[in-house]
Amino acid sequence: MPGRCRGGTEAERARALRAAVSGLRHALARHPVELPDRAVAEEELAALAAMAAESEPEPARLRGALLLVLGALGSVSALAEPLAELNAAISRFGPPPGRR
After folding, report:
1. Is the pLDDT of residue 99 over 70?
2. Which 3 state secondary structure label does DSSP give 100?
3. CB within 8 A of 77, min separation 6: which ones?
4. Is 23 in contact with 85 (CB distance < 8 Å)?
5. How far is the C-alpha of 96 from the C-alpha of 81, rounded, in Å?
6. Every domain of the chain and the residues it spans
7. Which InterPro entries match (predicted)?
8. Which of 28, 51, 53, 58 lies in the 20 to 30 Å Cα band around 12?
């Protein structure tokens, strides 16, 4: 079926990714504690937002950005839910390499 792929249509996947990036950005903006790697996370979230605007973002690039965001913010329990939503949105683009 054209336009249909793992995790929904391309438009559905992109919409889910944009929503997850936006949700995490808002949660991060509301987080009152200064985080040493906040700038790294914000930079990668900007990259993810740009990738979501592409017609077919590369899953490997999405996963690389996700790993950097998780490394920067993964220990912050207040951000666990939006991080999980971002992970789920990126998972819709395909499994990690070696897990087909």
Report:
1. no
2. coil
3. none
4. yes
5. 21
6. 4-91
7. DUF5955
8. 28
Query: Counting Cβ atoms within 10 Å, is residue 87 exposed (0-12), middle (13-18) or buried (19+)?
Result: middle
Q: Produce one character per residue of 23-55: b if its CB has 16 or more CB atoms within 10 Å, e if not.
A: bbbebbeeeeeebebeeebbebbebbeebbeee
- Per-residue pLDDT tens over the stretch 18-31: 999 999 999 999 99
Which helix (DSSP H) or strand (DSSP E) does residue 45 occupy?
helix 38-53
Q: Which two tokens stand for residue 71?
A: 């490394």
pLDDT (average), residues 64-78: 96
Percentage helix, strand, coil, to 5, in the chain?
65, 5, 30
What's the predicted TM-score (pTM) here? Answer: 0.88
